[in-house]
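Board notes (copied after class):
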Amino acid sequence: MHKATVITFDADGTLWDFRLVMRRALSHVLVALRQAVPVPAAHALTVDDMVGIRNDAAQASHLRCSRVTFRVQRQDSHGNGVSTFTGALRRQGE
């Protein structure tokens, strides 16, 4: 994986196709996850699953707060992702 040399912010969506960039980033995350946690649950997880986790967290964040920051949404996404993955690992161990 390449080191980032530039970071940009595109709050209004005019510079980058956010969905495309998000999906590419999540595909890299999946590769790293599968290497770090080589279990069937990691290999069963898809980019679409991860996008769904992100979307669920975004919706929950907006229901919880009238003004959602990126930090809140990121924390919610991380928590939902960890609990989803942990639940899948537990089910495989049963």
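Comment from the instructor: The chain has one domain: 18-93. Residues 18-93 form one domain.
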